[in-house]
UniProtKB/TrEMBL annotation:
It comes from the Bacteria. This is Uncharacterized protein. Residues 8-24 have a biased composition (Polar residues). Residues 1-25, 37-86 are annotated as: Disordered. The chain crosses the membrane at residues 132-150, 162-181. The keyword Transmembrane applies. Keywords: Membrane, Transmembrane, Transmembrane helix. It comes from Candidatus Nanosynbacter lyticus.
């Protein structure tokens, strides 16, 4: 069965051996091709799995962001209570005081003492309103004219003229201020 093709004695080829080698190589190539196809299928499946996982992660992240936004909106919709405002104020005050030098921190603690703060707010909203202080200062400045008139006509002054004129200016300013505020409030209520 063994046929030999002889073109030259040195180059003789056994066709059966050649077919066997050829079949083995074909089988190896076919197996390699099958492995490559399986690997490609596996890669395609992995790629699909990765795509699905990425989509799931993106969806999950988007849902979390939506939940955070909704919870934030719910918190924003809730009106602030006095306790929330006080806690925020104390926290901010503590943070700022920690950044101050020791003397500044001590002064800040004194002026931000609740008793001092409430007294200051009460005075600032009633007696020491800016317009009232300005009108009182204008009254005190008017004392210069009183001194010139007293000097010219020879009157004796007691020294309390500046204080009296400040109080008079403040009083006139208070009447004007409260009349103006009352007038504006009446206008708004109509």
């Amino acid at each position: 069965m063994s046929e030999k093709l002889k073109s030259t004695p040195e180059n003789s080829i056994d066709t059966e051996a050649w077919h066997n080698v050829n079949n083995e190589k074909s089988t190896e190539i076919a197996k390699s091709l099958e492995k490559a196809i399986e690997k490609e299928k596996s890669n395609a499946e992995n790629e699909n799995n990765i795509k699905h996982e990425a989509i799931e992660l993106a969806t999950r992240h988007e849902n979390e962001q939506t939940e955070k936004r909704q919870s934030k909106e719910a918190k924003e919709d809730k009106p602030l209570t006095k306790k929330d405002i006080d806690n925020s104020y104390k926290k901010t005050l503590t943070n700022v005081q920690n950044q101050l030098s020791a003397p500044s921190r001590a002064f800040s603690k004194v002026i931000h003492n609740p008793v001092v703060e409430k007294t200051s707010d009460a005075i600032g909203n009633t007696i020491a309103r800016p317009n009232l202080i300005i009108s009182g200062a204008l009254g005190a400045i008017a004392s210069v004219f009183v001194y010139f008139i007293a000097k010219r006509y020879g009157y004796l002054l007691s020294g309390s003229e500046v204080i009296v004129l400040f109080v008079a200016g403040w009083s006139i300013g208070a009447v004007i201020e409260y009349a103006r505020v009352g007038f504006i409030n009446n206008r708004k209520s109509r």
